[in-house]
Write a structure and sequence with these properties.
The longest helix is centred in the C-terminal third of the chain and has 21 residues. The chain has 18 helices and 27 strands. The chain has 620 residues and is α+β, with helices and mostly antiparallel strands.
Length: 620
């Protein structure tokens, strides 16, 4: 606690020391700090400058500053974002005002630590509260009936979000006490066309498929084929990761608990494009290394979650190809028994019928149809999430969860104990937030909320249920611009059920403007089309040992990077240290940044995710 009464929690394993009045929290990796300091009453800019002076004297960098919605007891919030000199650090500051006095937080972390320690950072920031403030709680309050008036409050948020965030279409389903109280759509399936979204419209539900995959595993646990603590390698001899000790320790529940120390390593299957398969995904996993201790912290791994589904399919159908075995297991154990007749991982089948096209903002901020190359690459990792479904099917699943394994006709689909084991916290994800097995457990508002989101190119989704109150919801969105709506809908649902403070709509309106400003700011940094001289110095083709081939295509002044399976126009971005990078700008497939380099007489392009670096070298 600071002298002004500001409170915060120091995560397990972090150090804390005082330096010139600043509390400096150090991550276990070193050279990664969160700084918290009282900033006085001379204004946000002065408070931030004084905190930098106390933490790192002589620090000088130009910041992009913007006000953010005041929340969690603070009267005013201002955020400062700094450009990392080499592009590998997350540098920002927050100035938080209570009354006349400011509290400043500085984040100075490598991108790798920021991703690896994301859940612990959530603990710090979500417990940073001013003196005297108590977070709103809904504990002990009864849930209201979702009647027409209260449903209208929920749909008001959706319609406002569609207008302010430029979302073409949304589907919504609500269930209470075992009955569907609303299912329908808002807007259109595709911009420029009149066909409306309805309860049967298919969306890519992305990582919501993780919960469905663990349900398939739960059915097999109940059948006695294995249990949650069975070592995976004892049944599936081919299973391995790049670390022998981790391979030995991984039990069935660990495949999808985000708790094994295995990091995100998505680029290697994403860039593989249409060449990616279940077998190549498992080969990639066999070389992947953990970047934190087993069971220590939350790290989300799509590769491990995909292996969970392939394991379950292999146990049931050991002679089939991994993908085909998984699909058959899901149909036999999940989709068929629950009556989810529309749900499929078959893109051809999904796109042939009533489906929503994916959309994403272009570089000007205008929503366009998004390319689906990266989503098709994710077919190889579909147990981690790449199914198509609609609110009607997903409500069948949510109703079963709320009924603790019973079907609407009273028949038992699955035993209560094995079903609920998936909701047991396996690792901390934030303040009063935990990850189970493909499900998130959120208790920060005093009532348990089980949910999981989904993010695919052009699509956002969420499944939500309150097990103690018999209420569930499904929201499906056909645009990347709908990311904000997903989290605010969860908050709005609680407000409507428990007469909570009406902050969701206010935050939506405030954040929508900030999002548009951020897009404009990013656009100003780019040269479009790409700098002709720089593009002319590129090699015609490059190859990466991990990511495959990159072909450079130039036509009519436009430069494109083609990875096979997906491609994008690129822009150029100069940095203050003289570097020039190429950045993909295709709607939904934007934001991949490539540094230009040369070594040993070879032209190179370097791309990084948070914890890995990959090099493309000229040549075929």
């Amino acid at each position: 606690m600071l002298q002004n009464g500001t409170r915060f929690v120091v995560p397990k394993g972090w150090s804390i020391r005082n330096q010139d009045g600043a509390a400096i929290l150090g991550a276990p990796e070193g050279d990664a700090h969160i700084v918290i300091r009282e900033g006085g009453s001379d204004g946000a800019d002065a408070a931030v400058a004084a905190t930098w002076a106390a933490y790192r004297p002589g620090f000088a960098a130009t910041a992009q500053a913007a006000d953010r919605p005041a929340r969690e007891g603070w009267d005013q919030t201002r955020r400062y974002r700094y450009e990392s000199p080499d592009g590998t650090r997350n540098l920002f500051a927050l100035a938080l005002r209570k009354g006349e006095h400011w509290t400043v937080v500085i984040s100075d972390l490598s991108a790798a630590v920021a991703e690896r320690r994301d859940a612990q950072l959530e603990v710090i920031f979500n417990t940073l509260l001013p003196q005297g403030y108590t977070r709103e709680t809904f504990a002990g309050r009864p849930a209201h009936r979702l009647d027409a008036a209260r449903i209208a409050l929920l749909t008001e948020l959706i319609e406002t979000a569609r207008k302010t965030l430029d979302i073409p279409g949304v589907a919504l389903g609500l269930v209470q006490d075992g009955k569907v109280v609303f299912e329908g759509g808002f807007g259109v399936r595709q911009i420029g066309r009149a066909a409306p979204v309805d309860a049967r419209t298919l969306f890519n539900i992305a990582s919501n498929g993780k919960a469905l995959t663990t349900l398939m595993l739960a059915r097999q646990v109940e059948a006695g084929r294995f249990d949650w603590n069975t070592p995976v390698a004892s049944i599936w001899r081919e299973f391995r990761v790049g670390d022998a000790e981790t391979t030995r320790r991984v039990a069935v529940k660990h495949l999808i608990c985000a708790c094994t120390g295995m990091p995100r390593q998505d680029y290697e299957w994403m860039f593989e494009g249409d060449h990616s398969t279940a077998a190549s995904m498992m080969q990639l996993l066999s070389t992947a290394q953990p970047t934190s201790e087993f069971g220590d912290i939350y790290q989300y791994s799509n590769l491990m979650a995909a292996a969970a589904g392939f394991f379950g399919g292999h146990v049931l159908y050991p002679r089939r190809e991994l993908g085909a075995a998984y699909d058959a297991a899901m149909q036999q154990l999940v989709f068929g028994p629950l009556g989810m007749s529309a749900t499929t991982a078959d893109f051809r089948r999904a796109l042939a019928g009533n489906h929503a096209a994916g959309h994403a903002p272009d570089i000007q901020g205008n929503v366009r149809i998004a390319g689906q190359g990266l989503n098709r690459a994710a077919i190889s990792t579909r147990p981690s999430g790449n199914h198509w479904s609609n609110v009607r099917d997903l409500l069948r699943y949510v109703r079963m969860e709320l009924a603790n394994g019973l079907l609407p006709d009273g028949r038992r689909y699955i035993g209560e104990d094995v079903l609920l084991a998936r909701r047991e916290p396996q690792v901390t994800e934030g303040r009063d937030e935990y990850y189970g097995m493909g499900l998130k457990i959120d208790r920060q508002w005093g009532v348990p909320v089980i949910h999981h989101g989904g993010t695919a190119i052009g699509y956002r989704s969420d499944m939500i249920w309150l097990p103690d109150h018999g209420v569930g919801a499904v929201i499906l969105i056909n645009s990347d611009s709908g990311s904000l709506l997903r989290s605010l809908f969860r908050r709005r649902l609680l407000e409507v059920l428990f007469d909570g403070q009406p902050v969701a709509l206010q935050e939506l309106l405030s954040q929508a403007g900030k999002t548009q400003s951020a897009v404009a700011g990013q656009r100003e940094q780019l040269s479009i089309p790409a700098d002709a001289a720089a593009a002319g110095r590129l090699a015609p083709s490059y190859r990466s040992a991990e990511l495959g081939r990159l072909d450079v295509r130039r036509k009519n002044g436009v430069t494109r990077f083609d990875f096979g399976g997906w491609s994008s126009e690129v822009a150029t971005r100069p940095s203050k240290d003289g570097r020039l990078t190429f950045v993909t700008i295709a709607p939904g497939e934007d934001g991949f940044e490539f540094d230009v380099a040369e070594r040993d007489g070879k032209r190179r392009l370097v791309v990084r995710d948070a914890q890995h670096e990959y090099e493309f070298v000229e040549g075929r």
